[in-house]
Amino acid sequence: MKAQVFRGVNQLSYEEIPVPEILSDEVLVQVQVVGLCQSDIKKIRYPLLNPPRIFGHETAGTIAAVGSDVKHWQVGDRVVVLHHIPCMHCAYCLNESYSMCEVYKTVTTTAGFIPSGGGFAEYVKVPGHIVQHGGLMKIPAAVTFEQASFVEPTNCCLKAVKKAQVQPGQTVLITGAGPIGLMFIMLVKHFGARAIATDLLPSRIEKALAVGAEAAFDARDADLPAKINALTDGMGVDTSLLAVPSDKAFFQALDCTRKGGKILFFAEFPDEVEIPINPNILYRREIDLMGSYSSAYPLQALSADIVFNQRIDVDALISDRYPL
User: Fold this and answer.
1) N or C: which end of the chain has fewer CB within 10 A?
2) 0.85 cut: is pTM over it?
3) Nearest 10 degrees: CA dihedral of 128, 296, 266, 173?
4) Closest C-alpha among 194, 243, 235 to residue 219
5) Alpha helices, DSSP H only, in the chain?
6) Which residues sit opposite 28 in a β-bridge?
7) Is the peptide bond prior to 52 cis by the omega test (within 30 degrees of 0)?
8) Across residues 177-201, what is the average pLDDT?
9) Residue 78 bridge partners (DSSP)
10) How far apart are the first and last CA of the chain?
């Protein structure tokens, strides 16, 4: 089979490699569509992981083979592959912090080499743990593979929206209107809140408005806090979702978030970045700072419902299509 093999920083090699062999409890999926996640790009561009690897984790495809012990799945089934499934019995899982579980964090879906997702290949092997515990989801006939590939990133964004307890009637500031920021806008609107977006690119500002933002501004606008105050009766937004790893975006969010509001870090910052803050700002204004990493196991069904039933328009998030 063909695969794009990571051979080093900025080196993807289009190679012929063996089709993965499956064990009795495993499933082999023929990849139809895989999303290109920002985390994939980061792993390719920076010396974060040792080669060789095959990345790609927003995967949708067709089951090509099933192990002898696999039940409920058949060759030809159209499926979403979820690469993170928790163990359900460690201390983190028992406290419902599923994404902190070591089993969850350890990627085991693979097309070969060091398991790293495997979606950038013609076939990917899904291990028994994932097959047995909800890591395959059947795609309804009316849903395209492209749409289905959005279930995993939708889960990640949905987890953040739920963690921030976004409520109907609230106003949410979303810093960054890339694919994740745009998905945040659609989810915030779906749950009955108003979205305000910022970005540096005019095309993304226009796109934010097109997918449902009530307002969208250039992030460099010095009058941004005043404009947001005008849109929120002088209060500021209830919640800010940081979809870009920018200290400037954080301080901007701090200026725009109301007393008693929340700021959620969604984008991963470079490790060397430190943000100095006077703790009295949080104390006196009762601002909650929180983080949201990856997806949430309990939200799998809701994420699939949102995508499969077109409660948000994931087709609007597709900008380009590339062959393997």
Assistant:
1) C
2) yes
3) 150
4) 243
5) 38-45, 91-94, 102-105, 128-132, 145-148, 151-163, 179-190, 202-210, 224-231, 247-256, 279-285, 300-308
6) 65, 125
7) yes
8) 98
9) 62
10) 11
**Residue 314 DSSP SS3:** helix
> CA 239, CA 258: separation in Å to the nearest integer?
8
Adjacent-strand bridge partners of 194: 171
In tens, the pLDDT along 53-102 reads 999 999 999 999 999 999 999 999 999 999 999 999 999 999 999 999 99
Interior CA angle at 287 toward 282 and 291, to 5°? 105
Q: Which tokens go with 36?
A: 């290109």
- Give dist(CA 157, CA 314) in Å, integer: 13
The two structure tokens encoding residue 254: 């701090």
CA distance 267 to 241: 9
Domains of the chain: 2-152+296-317 (3.90.180.10), 165-291 (3.40.50.720)
Which DSSP symbol is given to 94? H
Distance between CA atoms of 145 and 140, rounded to whole angstroms? 10
CA distance 66 to 153: 26
User: In this structure, how many other beta carbons lie within 10 angstroms of the beta carbon of residue 260?
Assistant: 12
Backbone angles phi, psi at 189, to 5 degrees: -65, -40
